[in-house]
Write a structure and sequence with these properties.
With 1037 residues, the protein is mostly helical. Helix content is 62%, strand content 2%.
Length: 1037
């Protein structure tokens, strides 16, 4: 019934009246029928309001007096409709919330008059819950009565707590409630601090808040409506300072109700007072114009402009505040140090602006320059510490401007250290000025406590300071400065060169390097800012070099080792060709500044200008005659290999185990980048890193090991050592390469990492300029696998045409080849993998020229650093493909021939006789090809060997036993947690669980690799032999 009433309420009054009138004309309704209708509506309204029930009762009395005859039909209808309208009143959620607030505010003010603190606390809890429920309505603006009650409660609570005498007389429950109310208000009012401050600046007290609590609802409603105009005018003035207020609510009443609801309520109230025919007369409606959007936009712009002006004024005041506090004419080092200690003690406190603190410390630093390094350097250390304190979380990084300023401050310290000074940790001196000032402060406090007039006694105690040398009175600042000078006079020359500072230089440098790395991870690598940021690396390395030299000179070996390790990690990944260009650009920027800031005459070519004659400045710019700016390359240190070798040796002698591990990995990687494969391999085997890397417990070190193995494999590929390259790359390239190299985060469907694990993995990422190109890596891996696997696949078929089981060289390559072969439509190759798969198909069919054209002309070879590196790789691949093409041809078609001519093979594969003779002889020695040479005729005589039935059964037995042993090894490895069993089905032999997720490549003992058992000199490590069993892979031969 209530839903029906609410639905009918939404209809307009005048059309409803017309419908009722027309219905009355067509179907006359008797008085008794109308009486029943009136009783029905009265019964529905009696549950909601007592006034409605009384009106319903009066209407029923009138109907009973009228009987069943004519009666006053319009009066009866008017009464019933009025009660019906009162029942049909529909309120919005915002209006109901505001009424709830008004009720709680009224109760709170009554309890405040009664001083019932427990009731105040209970009522405020209800109000806060109501505010939480109505937070969507409060988002558009907080009503001023609600702000007013919050302000009044704070003031009321503070006043009651100050009255200690009355507080002692309270009961236990009331006292606890008053104390709890203080904490509750402090926590609750944080979200409303802005609007409360705006209200305190311009308070407005309306009539309803100042009226007596005993007044009835009608009077309170009228007072609130009358106060709406005054609050509206004030809200428009406060809206500039209050960011939470809304422009649409400026002209509304305090509770934010809209004009439509208020006008409709007034209409209903007016109709309920009319009787009889007057109710149906047409009345005028008040039209409220909407605000102009242009005015709203102008007001918003004005508020934003005022806010910017206030922030600029605040920043300017912060910059000039220190100078006004510490005037330069009376400034002494003692006053300066005391101010610095005061600011340093404010670091980390709640509510303290760290940027404001940094600005004040920088201002003090500028004032301290004239007092010399002994005063300047301690302040510099405080400034550097404050700069590192600007970052709130681990993921925040230091701005570029702040980072450069911090580097310049540290550079200033190096300049002071070069002058013969040294740093030492600050200690508390019992006879120093600080302790003297503390003792004097205690004397003054004691004098103030013992005297009747404490303030005057404290002043008198301050005036009693007398200079013992002159007998004249002195202030506390003068005494501290005198004591400082007297103490410095007693210092020796060595002590004068020692500067006491707070903090650790090595930790500051380590933090500076971390902030630099984080900034590279946060800045987009596609922007020019990233390239500009890379120039700062030379500044960082130079700082590390200078401080490492200082630490070595002072005998601080542990700090020197940490800085040497940082230098290695910022130098090992750069090729000499690239490193020279980067250092040259950094030196140019240091001498001449940014290239964009130079005059166009310096950067444009000047070939059309004759610079040999007289200088005619009326025609050309004078800068053209000076030529383009350049730097002297002799100033650059180009022996990067020797530098890294010396740093690594220093770490090996004095560093920790973790530092030694990282240093040797970086050195191996540097050798591999410069194609020194034998040096890198020997260093790897001697260090036994492949055995100990999984027990180091550091994920970043494991990632560094993976990157080293990848670089080593690519180095072996460039040197033409295909088997070694495949052994190094096979394990890394079989799975998620991006994660193993820290060059990206996987976002697969079955990713079960938590948010903390994802954040930790993002922090371990490598900057973009250190990334290894994945296309180049895939090309090296797949091509090396192709050159090993294609001849191996061709050898699977014996002379009788039967396919036998053989050891798989690369499961990843076979998986990709099967996918490429089963494609319904094979279009032109687009990716690197497609080129390699198509080249593999051509090589298997004997078309080695097509294979060479597809593989040797890939665009990724241009990414290899070095002069002519792409051409060298193309020539190497051509020779390797010819050899493997010949071996594949002999494996596949030797059963079809009785003899082969040497000259024919030379013509088919464009090889010399010596090269063909060497390849065929090797196959004969390794029992891969059953044939012999006929020297006079230069032919190869082939022999057909058929295995007996006993040999076939023995081979089958051996293969099944080998499969069983391999399955047992995989199961044992899965239980030990090294790598998984189920990864072999798709070419991935690792299980990415726990620390083994970052397993390095190339150390699979079952598949050969770099271990002492299978790679000792003299052992046969060729792809055609199984090094475990020593048996011939071509078992049927």
């Amino acid at each position: 019934t209530k839903r029906a009433l609410a639905a009918r309420q939404s209809l307009d009054n005048q059309p409803r009246t017309k419908r009722i009138t027309e219905k009355d004309r067509e179907l006359p309704v008797t008085t008794s029928a109308r009486t029943e209708m009136s009783r029905f509506w009265a019964a529905g309204s009696s549950d909601s309001d007592s006034d409605d029930s009384s009106s319903a009762a009066s209407s029923s009395d009138d109907s009973s007096r009228g009987g069943g005859g004519g009666g006053n039909r319009w009066a009866a209808l008017s009464d019933s409709e009025s009660s019906e309208d009162e029942v049909r009143e529909v309120k919005s959620g915002k209006q109901r919330a505001m009424e709830t607030f008004q009720m709680h505010i009224k109760n709170l003010r009554q309890h405040m008059k009664d001083r019932d603190y427990y009731a105040i606390q209970t009522e405020f809890d209800l109000l806060s819950k109501a505010m939480v429920k109505a937070k969507q309505h409060l988002a558009t603006g907080v009503p001023r009565p609600l702000v007013r009650i919050l302000v009044d409660l704070e003031d009321y609570n503070s006043e009651r707590l100050k009255d200690k005498e009355q507080f002692k007389k309270l009961s236990a429950r009331q006292g606890r409630a008053l104390n709890k109310m203080k904490l509750t208000l402090k926590k609750h009012n944080k979200a409303f601090k802005v609007v409360m401050d705006a209200y305190r600046a311009n308070p407005v007290i309306s009539d309803d808040e100042g009226s007596d609590s005993s007044s009835d609802d009608k009077s309170s409603d009228s007072s609130s409506s009358s106060s709406s105009s005054s609050s509206d005018s004030d809200s428009s003035s406060d809206s500039d300072d209050d960011k939470d207020s809304d422009d649409d609510d400026d002209d509304s009443d305090d509770w934010g109700s809209d004009s439509d609801s208020s006008s409709s309520s007034e209409d209903e109230g007016g109709l309920s007072e009319l009787k009889g025919r007057a109710r149906w007369l047409k009345k005028t409606t008040e039209i409220i114009k909407k605000k102009d959007p242009e005015d709203i936009k102008k007001r918003q712009q004005r508020r934003a402009q005022l806010k910017q002006e206030q922030e600029a004024a605040k920043a300017a005041a912060a910059i000039t505040a220190t100078k006004s506090i510490l005037p330069e004419d009376t400034l002494t080092p003692t006053i300066l140090n005391r101010k610095v200690q005061e600011l340093a003690g404010q670091r980390g406190r709640r509510g303290k602006d760290n940027r404001q603190l940094l600005r004040e410390l920088e201002a003090l630093y500028r004032l301290s320059v004239k007092f010399g390094p002994r005063v300047e350097i301690p302040i510099v250390m405080h400034v550097v510490a404050a700069q590192f304190g600007l970052q709130r979380t681990m993921d925040d990084y230091m701005d570029t401007s702040v980072w450069k300023a911090c580097a310049l401050y540290l550079q200033r310290i190096t300049e002071v250290l070069e002058d013969g000074y040294k740093l030492a940790p600050e200690t508390i001196d019992e006879g120093g000025p600080a302790l003297m000032a503390a003792n004097m402060g205690k004397d003054k406090m004691a004098a103030a406590a013992n005297a009747a007039d404490g303030a005057m006694a404290a002043v008198a105690a301050d005036e009693k300071l007398v200079n013992p040398h002159t007998g004249e009175p002195e202030t506390q600042d003068e005494r501290e400065e005198r004591l400082r000078l007297e103490k410095e006079e007693t210092l020796t020359e060595e002590e004068k060169k020692t500067i006491r500072v707070v903090g650790s230089l090595s930790l500051h440098l380590t933090r500076l390097e971390e902030e630099y790395t984080k900034s590279l991870l946060k800045v987009s690598h596609h922007s020019a800012d990233y390239v500009t940021r890379l120039r700062d690396e030379s500044m960082l390395v130079e700082l590390l070099t200078q401080f490492q030299t200082y630490f070595e000179k002072e005998g601080m070996i542990s700090e020197a080792v940490s800085l040497a390790q940082l230098r290695i990690e910022h130098m090992y990944y750069r090729h000499d060709h690239i490193a020279k260009q980067v250092d040259k650009a950094a030196l140019f920027a240091k001498q001449y500044g940014e290239m964009s800031m130079l005059h166009p005459a310096l950067t444009s070519p000047s070939t059309d200008v004759d610079t040999s004659g007289d200088l005619d400045y009326t025609k050309v710019h004078p800068a053209i005659y000076g030529g383009q700016p350049s730097v002297d390359e002799t100033d650059l240190s180009t022996d990067y290999t020797g530098t890294i070798s010396n740093l690594s040796t220093f770490v090996y002698k004095n560093g920790t185990e973790a530092a030694k591990t990282r240093a040797i990995i970086c050195q191996i990687c540097h050798h591999a980048i410069h194609d020194r494969f034998l040096d890198a391999r020997d260093l790897l085997l001697m260090s036994h890193l492949q055995d100990n890397i999984y027990s180091c417990g550091d994920v970043t070190t494991m990632i560094l090991f993976n990157r080293m193995m990848v670089n080593l494999g690519m180095c072996a590929f460039r040197k033409g050592r295909i088997h070694d390259a495949h052994q190094c790359l096979s394990e890394i390239c079989s799975g998620r390469v991006r994660e193993l190299l820290a060059q990206g985060v996987s976002a697969g469907r079955f990713n079960e990492k938590t948010a903390d694990q994802e954040k930790a993995e993002k922090r371990r990422q490598v900057p973009y300029h250190q990334h290894i190109n994945l296309d180049l890596l895939e090309a090296c891996h797949l091509i090396s696998a192709m050159l090993l696997e294609v001849p191996n696949m061709a050898a699977l078929v014996d002379d009788s045409g039967n396919t036998r089981r053989n050891r798989i060289v690369s499961r990843t390559f076979r998986k990709f080849l099967d996918q490429y072969s089963h494609q319904v439509f094979t279009g032109p190759p687009e990716q690197t993998r497609d080129y390699v798969m198509r080249a593999s198909k051509a090589l298997m069919s004997g078309d080695w020229k097509t294979c060479v054209d597809l593989v040797s002309k890939l665009d990724v070879w241009n990414l290899v650093p070095g002069d002519g590196a792409a051409d060298q790789i193309g020539e190497m691949l051509t020779e390797k493909i010819k050899v493997e093409g010949l071996r594949t041809y002999l494996f596949a078609f030797s059963a079809q021939y009785d003899s082969l001519s040497l000259s024919q093979l030379c013509g088919m594969f464009d090889m010399s006789k010596n090269e063909v003779h060497s390849v065929v002889s090797k196959m004969m020695i390794n029992r891969e090809l059953y044939a012999s040479w006929d020297q006079p005729t230069e032919t190869i005589v082939l022999r057909k060997v058929e295995p007996t039935s006993l040999q076939v059964m023995a081979l089958q037995y051996a293969e099944k036993a080998a499969a069983l042993v391999e399955a047992n090894e995989r199961l044992l490895d899965a239980q030990n947690g090294n790598y998984g069993y189920d990864g072999d089905r798709d070419g991935d032999r690792r299980r990415f669980d726990g620390p083994s997720h970052y397993r390095g490549g190339g150390q699979d003992r079952r598949d050969g690799g770099y271990n002492r058992r299978d790679n000792r000199p003299g052992r046969d490590n060729r792809p055609g032999r199984d090094n475990r069993s020593g048996r011939d892979n071509r078992s049927g031969r």
